[in-house]
Design goal:
With 239 residues, the protein is α+β, with helices and mostly antiparallel strands. The protein contains six helices and seven strands; from the N terminus they run ααβαββαββααββ. The protein has a domain at 18-31 and 87-233: Histidine kinase-like ATPase, C-terminal domain (Heat Shock Protein 90, 2-Layer Sandwich). The chain is 44% helix and 18% strand. The strands form two sheets. It has a five-stranded mixed sheet with strand order 2-4-5-7-6. α1 (18-49) packs antiparallel against α2 (53-81), α2 (53-81) packs across α4 and α4 runs antiparallel to α6 (191-202).
Length: 239
Amino acid sequence: MLSDGSLDGFMTKFSLDPLDLAALLSSRVCHDVISPVGAIVNGLEVLEEEKDAEMRGHALALIKSSAAEASARLQFCRLAFGAAGSKGAAIDTGDAEHVTRQLLADERTRLEWSVPRVLMSKNKVKLLLNLCLIADATIPRGGVISVSSTGDEDRIAFRIEARGTNARLAANIPALLDGAPEDGAIDARSIQIYYAGLVARASGLAVEVAASPELVTITAKPADRRADRPADEAADIGV
């Protein structure tokens, strides 16, 4: 479970310099888009050099699919990591569903989305998207990701289930979500999970993870608050 508090005025177990946070999140975004962008470049090179119609057709198909993949990843990252407006702004959960479906648009993974379409505080939507990203990583061979919510804005709770062959929860995930990396360091591969923990605390939610054969469950529920002000007003997390 996550520790109490948020970035602004609350205690956390591990302190990461804001510049390092921004740099690591930027590295994560670049990592996510460099592969499809590289494929686009390769496809363009083939078009410049290849005269065979069939090969040019394959190159165009590669460029089209890679461009769609890069766009999907960037749109997801814009909501999951970005500021998305001023403090206190809201995000349409329908937009969150759309970018998640685009991100998981392959034959290996099916998304079951049961979150009502409403305007929700941006940090809570960003948390939901980051938890979906964590869930997707637990089923590398694909499967089904089920996303649901209960309660209203003030007492919202999320539940994400990832079902798939060889579903696996990495051992370092609970500590990273709790803001206490086991080795006392954060890198570009672990920053997204650590960031999800920061957003959870800023939203006043506590995250728990559990794993069983072929099933990983992630829940986010209202945590006890020690501040006089709502948690969503305590921090505005974005890059």
